[in-house]
Amino acid sequence: MAHIIVVGNEKGGSGKSTTSMHVATALARMGHRVGGLDLDVRQGSFRRYLENRMAFSAREGIELPTPELAGLAEGSDPLSPVMADLETRCDFILLDCPGSHTKLSQMAHAMADTLITPLNDSFIDFDLLARMSPDGEVLGPSIYAEMVWAARQMRVQAGAGPIDWLVLRNRLGTQAMHNKRKVGDALSNLSRRIGFRVAPGFAERVIFRELFPRGLTLLDLKDIGTESLSMSNIAARQELRDLIAELKLPGVSVRF
């Protein structure tokens, strides 16, 4: 069966669609069969990213490794039949969830073999995982962590395996700032309490915003004629390489 990767967080602007696109495309570039599904029916950034990619490939006559883009079905359960269809021909299926609490997002989390939660490196985003006292004491899990707990319980009841949950620290500052250290310590402590792994994600880079209109990723730059990469682009590719390695996906070895 396909390994299901869910990218979720109940807060917008954390880098879910950028993460989804780069993970899915990296797996496709390594020869894996990848299906992609955007559950944000209103904004649909991941869907538009893939559509931009297909349009750019057709216009430029360049064949780029691209995940298969699927759409939701009609009816009261729009997710299950699409997932069943993708599983017949995909090694991995990546679901990009909206930045809000929806029934589709709940269903997706219960299906996740691997859950990636991109998180801006601030206590504002941390609040989705845990409630904190004014003096920094963790009081208990917050709304998103409780939703993941419910998804885990549903998987246990269904006889499915555990969810490997990775919290991704996006937009990390380049300096060892006091707030960065405090957020890191809080995440480390919380990870042991509610069961997730912590990994560095993507720094804030202009290149991500520039690539979206053409549906490109960091791995496509040489395919479109970029002969030399800037130091920033090289660092960003290494961040992606580290993320793919940290995911520890079955049958995946980093080869880019």
From TrEMBL:
Record-linked SUPFAM superfamilies = P-loop containing nucleoside triphosphate hydrolases
Q: Which InterPro entries does the UniProt entry name for this protein?
A: DNA_Partitioning_ATPase (IPR050678), MipZ (IPR015223), P-loop_NTPase (IPR027417)
User: Which superkingdom does the taxonomy of this entry point to?
Assistant: Bacteria
What is the protein name for this chain?
A: ATPase
